[in-house]
Predict the structure.
Amino acid sequence: TLHVARNFTGSNITYAYPANVKLSDTITMAAKKRTRRATASLSMAALLIGLCCFSSSSSPLAPMVDAADPKRFLGTNNHKFWSLRGGSLLDTATKINFDDNLGSLSLYGVGVRKKGPIKVYSVGMYSDESAKSSIASLPKNKSALTTLRKSLKSSKTTSFLLKMNFKVGAEKMADAIAESVDPRTSDKGAVESLKKLIMDGVSAKGAATPGTILQFDCLSDGSVKVSVDGKAVGSASGLSEPFCDVFLDDNGVSPAFRESVVENCCGVASSSSSATPTATHSSLSHNPIHIIGSLFYHKLKLPKLPYKYNALQPIISEKTLRAHHLKHNAKYIETVNQIVGEGGASLKHLSMEQIVKSKALKESNTVLYNNAAQCWNHLFFFRCMSGSGGGGEPKGLLAKTIRRDFGSFDNLRKEMESSSIKAFGSGWTWLGYDKKEKKLVVSTMTGAGNPLIEGIIPILVIDMWEHAYYLDYQDNRKEYINGFFDRLVNWKYAQQNLKHAMGRGIVPETVHHVSHHGLPLVAALFSANLAKKTAVHILFQQS
């Protein structure tokens, strides 16, 4: 028997073999040459596959990793099992989304249930915030699930949504769930009752086809209420705790789900103890379109501007920009951190999108809403200006869309200028894309107004708060707006936002992160496997 050990170090491969086996330098070099060829070929294949996968995505919330802190995700909790996409969790194994809330209940985690290679369904768990807060300060390991299971006993309702990804017959579906619950309870009659409810509910539509949603509400009285596609079927008594254990105990049927719960719910309280916001060298791809889904697991930090403080002169002076960024913007961030830090777990789990889009939160917690919206608005505004090559007229898709919706660029400019000058007090003048009407619209919103609350995607904005222009222009708003359009506006960024809103194109930042983080790993896995087989084949051939 020839024993071959492979030791991969960078791009080199070394071979360890018994002393009585002689390998010539020629064979060793041939193995390395074939390995390099395989690596190059598979790297190119992985690149093409990666680009195809990402070009097919129409979501405006593409994954974005903060270069300064790879563990902090902007817009996507880019885990191997799930990802966060604007107010929801996506099970990446099945591409099935789960909303952040189910009525008054909050989402804890999602995961795929597999049977061999078949991805049968995705499961998401919802419960009240009290149980979530019980593990918020615990470290991110699976031992926290024991504490969570105890806390869920006192919850009024814990709901599990099973969203089908594979067609399963009514009887098989009922058997599968009953077989998982059975070992966890001594009440066999209740298990049979649950089995019958599932069978009856699924039989009504023939089978559990992809898209079917089975809902199991584990109630405080110990019963489990069964619903199929929103239609209540009935309740089985005494199975609330065993049913929770099917997904949460050490032998849970979905390891991906358990890991998702730990990742999303643990280690939250301790991570918000960083210092007050200061300018940081975070990635220049800090785009509010991506930040929409970022969680307050860490305190917000004042992002570094994508240009120097004197880059916008003479339109906006260095003195104005420094005061705008380091004083006003920083104050909004400091206030948000303070409110979220004092607000408990319920606020820490709110995403930026949830705050900015929430009309209820705008009424119930006005201070948090206004300051969070101002953080979003300023980050977006600073990206809407270019330190070099800005201004003029747009090109490409944006220019065509403007001509279609406004007749000409001049008409759009006049409308934004008129709206800005006539606006009473402070606010923002937005160019947005109405996804329902499928057209561009102009709106001026006072205070911290943001069009996301009306379901409109921001494309471009002009800050009409006095601190943005007063030191340079006093009350001459028109001159400030003309300078913005003539010398500063970043049409490339605006066009990128339009493509996001319309579901077109590949985001340059996404391509960057795929090529720099995802592809080397994929290529390495493929290349290492082929290199191993090739090396063993050559060695045995020589032997």
Observations:
- The longest strand covers residues 105-115.
- Residues 1-28, 54-86, 270-297 have pLDDT under 50 and may be disordered.
- Residues 201 and 355 are 37 Å apart (CA to CA).
